[in-house]
Specification:
The complex is a heterodimer of chains A (about 300) and B (about 290). Chain A has about 300 residues and is mostly helical. Chain A is built from 13 helices and two strands; from the N terminus they run αββαααααααααααα. Chain A is globular, with a radius of gyration of 24 Å. With about 290 residues, chain B is an all-alpha fold. The chains are: A mainly alpha (about 300), B mainly alpha (about 290). At the A-B interface, helix 1, helix 3, helix 4, helix 5 and helix 6 of A face helix 1, helix 2, helix 5, helix 6 and helix 7 of B.
Chain lengths: ~300, ~290
């Protein structure tokens, strides 16, 4: 990127000072909002600690307690369920929708805006809206299912559908990913399709042999971004599961089916004030995220195609 | 031929576009895209029409989309049953200050990371990237303890100060933008003897305007829609944002769907207007792949 032309020379000391001066807000931010909190969180995770009492060293006790904490496992299971069902469906819908948007159509900006619109709705408003839409008796989702004679689940009150309801709400904001795929589709060289056309390849084969490999780097990146987002999901299940009878207390849905990992972490930290335990949970989340991300990256060489022309 | 023509064709079908059945394909393409957009837009229509229904009609099985009698009662209810304008003002203040912090600070750091050459620059860039990946849950509790120690929980400081210390996503976005700006523009000003800050202020910032606007609109929408951080830090109803205000609304009054949907409409509207005005900056930000 740098031009070969010699630069007007500047003493390295002054350059360093200038660089640091311009970057100083973030350097402070990094120390105060990231580095120190990470170290503190690691320490807290090894202590028994709440707002009202000083941290007391307990070694790995918090981590050991997770093993026998059924709610911990339930929240981890739910979150992995959201992630491993939600992310593939999210990607599939995005690719299919991007194909629809990539047709020869008038009013492209309008169509793009319409699919993206749900992504800027405040999550609390979206949550309430979908509680209403998913209402078994008065909601439109079941009404539409009724038209097509499809059985209508009791979305928000049936333990086996609570998790699916969370995923449905999250899929409403799939538009951002769809637009990224739309940009990716526009980057696939047209000659490839023309050549395949001459060879008599049908649409499905053109997709599998041209489109899918050509957009696979985008898929890799989006899969990772989405997995990270799904593993941290908080607001959507928090609002969907809210029980008016419980006041401001945290609800977790029928049979705890909407208890996400982050909700349980939040409950431990700010409701039960078990801040040491919550910190330990945060570290487990970090390691789970890292492990899944590394696994995806490792698998990438088998399915991601890099165009090295 | 373009891809567009393949996408519209069902498996195994070979219909030349513009041929005898061209008009049929056109209808097919528009039917598909209207169906797609409809799935995303339909919930909004329900939100809007529910807000205009009288209470008796809201609870009707099977539900009907349009109100038989239109009413503005629920909007009046939304504005009077909860301190809506108080919540609105709080949200505007927090979102406004976050945007101010973002446009003041993130480009400074981005400039240092793209146009200044100094030892340690690459290390700092790695730090920016690393913080983008870190789950916020890890830092949540220590940062809360920190604000608690200085007595700032319950104030809006924890919600706006981070923006004044540079947001990694926006630093990254603006840096990528500045990398594409030719150095010659800056070098020329240097030869003229302009100070580094003047160069930044009067040359770099104006050039970076598109990236700044993109950052500002995303920051606004994030702050506007944020839930977790206001939930943790704001414990007094006086200081609630709309997110928290509406959330507690459901607890205090049971579920009154009419006023609730009306307040959701009012809550969503400002974000919509920002989106409509700055649409191309949103779409541009998404195309960089860093934001969504």
């Amino acid at each position: 990127m740098q031009s070969a032309r010699p630069k007007p020379s500047e003493p390295t000391g002054r350059a360093l000072l200038k660089g640091l001066a311009f970057a100083s807000p973030f350097i402070i931010g990094f120390l105060v909002l990231y580095l120190w909190p990470i170290l503190a969180s690691g320490y807290y995770s090894l202590t028994d600690f709440s707002l009202f009492k000083a941290p007391k060293w307990v070694g790995l006790a918090n981590y050991e307690r997770m093993i026998s904490d059924a709610k911990f496992w339930k929240s981890l299971y739910n979150t992995l369920f959201f992630t491993f069902v939600g992310v593939p469906v999210d990607i599939a819908i995005s690719i299919a929708g991007a194909h629809i948007l990539n047709q020869k159509l008038k009013g492209q900006p309008l169509w793009r805006a319409l699919v993206y619109l749900p992504s800027i709705v405040p999550a609390v408003a979206a949550g309430f809206l979908w509680r209403w839409l998913l209402n078994a008796q008065y909601g439109f989702v079941n009404e539409i299912l009724r038209w097509f004679r499809i059985p209508q689940p009791n979305w928000l009150l049936d333990a086996s559908w609570g998790g699916i309801s969370v995923i449905v709400l999250m899929l409403w904001t799939v538009g951002g990913t769809m637009l990224i795929y739309l940009a990716a589709l526009k980057n696939v060289p047209q000659e490839l399709y023309e050549a395949a056309e001459l060879d008599g390849a049908g649409p499905l084969r053109r997709f599998w042999h041209i489109t899918w490999p050509m957009i696979s780097p985008v898929t890799l990146f989006q899969v990772i971004v989405l997995i990270i987002a799904f593993l941290q999901v908080f607001t959507q299940p928090f609002v969907l599961s809210k029980d008016p009878g419980l006041g401001t207390q945290t609800a977790t849905g029928p049979g705890d089916s909407m208890l996400s990992y982050s909700i349980y972490l939040f409950q431990n930290g700010f409701t039960f004030l078990k801040m040491g335990y919550a910190s330990a949970m945060a570290w487990v989340l970090l390691f789970v995220t890292l492990a899944i991300t590394l696994l995806i990256l490792w698998s990438a060489k088998k399915w991601v195609f890099y165009d090295n022309r | 031929m373009t891809t567009a023509e393949y996408q519209g064709t069902a498996v195994g079908e070979r219909v030349p576009v513009g041929g005898r059945f061209g008009w049929l394909m056109t209808i097919y393409r528009y039917a598909l895209v209207i169906l797609l957009a409809g799935v995303f837009v339909f919930p909004f229509i329900v939100m809007l029409t529910t807000a205009f229904k009288v209470s008796d009609e809201i609870f009707m099985a099977p539900p009907e989309l349009l109100p038989r009698t239109w009413t503005l009662d629920h909007f009046v209810g939304a504005l009077t049953q909860i301190p809506f304008f108080r919540f609105l003002l709080n949200t505007v203040v927090i979102a406004g200050l976050s945007v101010l912090g973002t446009v003041l600070v993130s480009p400074l750091v981005a400039y240092s990371l793209s146009k200044l050459r100094w030892k340690g620059r690459n290390l700092l860039f790695i730090m920016v990237l690393a913080t983008m990946m870190l789950p916020p849950q890890v830092t949540l509790i220590p940062i809360y303890m920190m604000w608690n120690k200085v007595g700032a929980t319950g104030t809006i400081l924890p919600l706006i100060v981070p923006a004044f210390l540079g947001t990694p996503f926006f630093i990254f976005l603006i840096r990528q933008f500045l990398l594409s700006v030719p150095d010659e523009l800056i070098e020329a000003a240097k030869v003229d003897g302009a100070s580094e800050f003047r160069i930044y202020w009067s040359i770099v910032l104006p050039i970076a305007r598109p990236a700044l606007i993109t950052s500002a609109v995303f920051q606004f929408v994030w702050a506007w829609t944020d839930f977790l951080y206001p939930l943790i830090y704001l414990n007094d109803e006086e200081s609630y944002t709309l997110s928290i205000g509406l959330y507690s609304f459901l607890g205090e009054h049971g579920v009154q769907w009419g006023p609730l949907m009306a307040s959701c409409v009012l809550f969503t509207l400002p974000a919509f207007l920002i989106f409509l005005v700055f649409q191309r900056y949103f779409i541009g930000g998404i195309a960089t792949g860093a934001l969504k």
